[in-house]
Fold these 2 entries.
Entry 1:
Amino acid sequence: MAQRRTAWTRLTTPFANIPASTATSLALAMWVVVIGGWALLSYGRVVPNMFLPTPGTVLQTTYRMGLDGSLFYHTLTSAKVVLLGFIVSSVIAVPLGLWMGTYRAVQAPLEPLVNFIRYLPVTSFVPLFILWIGIGIEQRIAVIFFGTFFQQLVMISDCARGVSRDLVNASYTLGTKRSEAVWHVIFPAALPAILDTLRVTMGWAWTYLVVAELVAASSGLGYISLKAMRGFQVDVIFMAIAAIGLLGLITDTAFRLLRARVAPWAP
Amino acid sequence: MGTLILNATTQTAAGSRVVMTESIKASTSAGAVSATDVRSAGITMAVEDVTLRYGEANGVLALDDVSLKVARNEFCVIVGPSGCGKSSLLYLAAGLNDATSGSIKVDGREVIEPGADRGMVFQSYTLFPWLTVRANIEYGPKRKGLPAEQRKRIVDQYLEEVGLAAFADHYPAQLSGGMKQRVAIARALANDPAVLLMDEPFGALDSQTRGTMQKLLLRVWERQQKTVLFVTHDIDEALVLGDRVLVMTARPGRIKAEIKVDIPRPRSMDVILEPEFIALKRRILGLLHDEIDEDH
């Protein structure tokens, strides 16, 4: 049956698997289209190079800034800001979210407040943070934290609430005390979903980077691209964006590997 | 004594039951019933006038004044149509829900919350997916704080008992439905509960696997000498497994009849072809059909 299907039928069947080689080719083709289109537009002068640099210039700039160490320096600063903001946020959001999803008495007071705060634009808090925290790295970390924490809290609370009641009931009939259920059942059962949440919110943390470095920063990928804008160095902006994307890809992969390692049982 | 309606053929069971009740009464008059008195009377679990109403005073009456006793090492089965409250009764016995009125005692102690003395096997798969088969079975003994070597002995014994020694290091996701329920039975028994509550544990399995599971459960039960309260809607299953079958009616849930199953053990799966078996089945079908007719 399966053998008689043509490649085309397989490609157009909902949820059907395609060969790994086909998947890789399609992924590569996508990059060829994007970079090829970019090259066509820039080398062909369809868009002036002042607005759209050529891939060659961007590579040259990357090479130059990589050699003099400035690329590494700015990347490191940015990574520090994002990772610290994300870690501080996660360390609080995971246990609190678990509690929120487990106990109605924690959820009832927190949820309305959190749902209010998480719709507030992070940018509007930047002036306040500068006023309260100053212009050091703490202020940038605070922006990342603020952008990540409340989303994480709601999502992790949902992960905990999604744990099967029968699983908890079964644990009770095996001698688990009510106070132990969070640690012995709800946390391990929700762990794969929690790691997925962390992976997704890590991505969001990276997107807040430029906002965090918008004002009062003197280093970082967001900072150099803002500075480059003033000097019309579009190639630097392109490089900074690509660097943020690559870093996001690395942390994303790290979380996938972590999940496969700590929750090998989860699909 | 509640609302047990006894039929002519259950007189023997009723007779012995009355004796039991009197021996409990005798010890009560001499003072409080201690756990040992009840044990000597041979009763592991006593459900007394239990009523369960969902919601407010005019809510659905799920269980109406249900009373029953399960003797020590007895295999007692409750059979009834879906929605008759038989599962609700098990949840009450497990302490996972509170009765509106009445009481349930296990080994003389009133059930007020869940505990390791009442093991339960659920209809849905409730193995902990993050633990291997071995760790799932070890969960209860670990909560109890048993030392590692004793835990290992218990786990190995029950892995052997349910024939899954080769799968000790597998995760539940790698097992078939029947294997999962075998682990669930092993996990519940590894805790050495006073009573094993089974809520349609084979309901989600195909009929062939169900037969294998029934055979396995009987073998384990005969060897381990456990008290079992088993709930099902499958009359064949009830008669193959039980020493006694309680027939439950729906809305409100009441125990309509008690049927003693005098088919000798060990029972093979061919027992369903015996005239004795068919006669009992006909009676239960009759009782349940009355029920369905009343509904229309």
Entry 2:
Amino acid sequence: MAKVSLQGVSKFYGKVQAVKKIDLEIIDKEFLVLVGPSGCGKSSSLRMIAGLEEIDEGVIKIGDKEMNNLEPRERNVSMVFQNYALYPHMTVEENLGFSLKIAGLAKKEIEERVHEAAGILDITEFLQRKPSQLSGGQRQRVAMGRAIVRRPDVFLFDEPLSNLDAKLRNQMRTEIKRLHQKVSTTIVYVTHDQVEAMTLADRIVIMKDGIIEQIGTPLDLFERPATKFVATFIGSPSMNMIKASIIKHNDQLSMKTNDGIIVPVPKDKQNSISEGQNISFGFRAEDIVPLKFGQKPSSAWEMQSSVNLAEPLGTETLIFTNFGEIEIVSRMFTPEQVKSNDNLNFALNLDRTYLFDEKSGLAI
Amino acid sequence: MNKKQINNILIWFSAIILIILIMTPGLWVVLTAFRPQVDVMAKPAVWIPRNLNLIQFETMLFGGSEGSMGRSPIPVLSYLRNSLIISFTSTFIAVLVGTIGGYGFARHNFKHKNKYFLLIMLTRTIPGISLSLPIFIIFSKIGLIDTHIGIILVFVALNIPFTIWLTDGFFRQIPRAMSEVAMTDGCTKLQAFWHIELPLSRSGIASAGIFAFLISWNEYALVSNLARSTDSKTLTVGLMDFTAQFTINWPGMCALAVFIIIPALILTFMVQKHLVTGLTFGGVKG
């Protein structure tokens, strides 16, 4: 059993509080991804779990054991670093076996376990090489091998793919997911890349400024963002977000943008909102589509606008257009040619429009 | 001839002049060591040696027959022993303490760290010889004049700042993640240092050691004050034994100088090799 729990954990660097009393329960064998912009406290949290940073406040437990005063080596965790941190003076085999040698295992067992790990990661043929003779992807694999060879309770990944080029990153991402299926150990994975988070995680923790914005499955976060920040952070392209205030219009609560555009408040939100409230409303690119090329949603609001720019991507086309003064992006899945300056009728799906209180940033 | 060729010739010409300027005194010392006194003292000077011999070396190392100057041989072997004991011991202590210090400065944050570092480096700006009088007075009060320990202490103090400076730089080059991953791999801090950081910085430590050794080995001014007898006189100070009230045995002195230069020369070549680093390359993003 290796669940991990953080209870009221804080981290200070001088006067700056990098992590602010976070609570987090990581279930045994779960793949949990900590994601957020740089400086959000995700790496500090990971390093506190590893024991590389002092825990200034709160308790961290692995299994049922409190970790606060234990050294990294006593926690039975393995960490994979962004820059791999392979031991340059050792061969791949020595790199993999180092932790076992320190633990005082017999030579034969070390060899067996090193070869087993090398087999899992497909690096057996490089065992006698030095790290400097390996490519980036191979080094990353060795770093992972070094982590699994110890059979730790928890794997900690600190942005392991950010040094790789795009193609290799996709490939390694799949491999990490496969690795998790093979070894089925709890994984805590830190990244700033929402795509990595979405594709890898069982659950995602979104952090910002040292606090947890939302915890949930990738689809949870995508479908039901709890805050404006989560809504814009998850998903690509980013959710369109427009500031507005609530007014009464034709006896119905409506949202009036700064440019004076009036959009009715979605029906299910009518009761949870009041006149005069300042809000932002957001919608994803696929929820505003040119009527000509898409199906009209059941509860639609229409507008006419000219195309600023179109990006055909094959399966989809991104259309940049204006919503008043603000540029928004629309995504259509029909393979039709759209040109700049085309005048199109767009339909916004009100059922899939998100409202956020401007002051608190919380979803309404 | 174009401009580039003229430039090349000028560069080579100046380089050769420079080399001659630098090398001549050294070569003259070596040459003098193998020449008879009469040749050396001849006026007008004899530039091309007429005959060469090993008499000075024989006399120096094996006592030889009564020298041409009618002087008893100089206790070179005692001086050699003193030099070796003093240089090796002081180097060992300086590198040990300095490496720990360098590691501390590279890896740990503490209050006023930069000021302490500057302070330690500032001690290097004081000319060693200006300390000789205070050191002499203190040592004479506590009985360290003419002892190995006294001279070793002085060299250790001289060499530690440099060792700290050099090893600090080397430890800084090693990514912190290296020791962190070692610690999650099951190492204590000390094991991480021993297995990972120390091997990775060994070129730096070796260079620091060689520099410290050369400084101790070649030092003259301070030891000439602190060493009084064969108990502690080093080879460099021993050079002065070749001077008498009215005469100087130049060939003998030069023979000893050659004898001193050899280990220094070997070590200098080793520095060259060790200063080529690139050892940490490959462990991190390449």
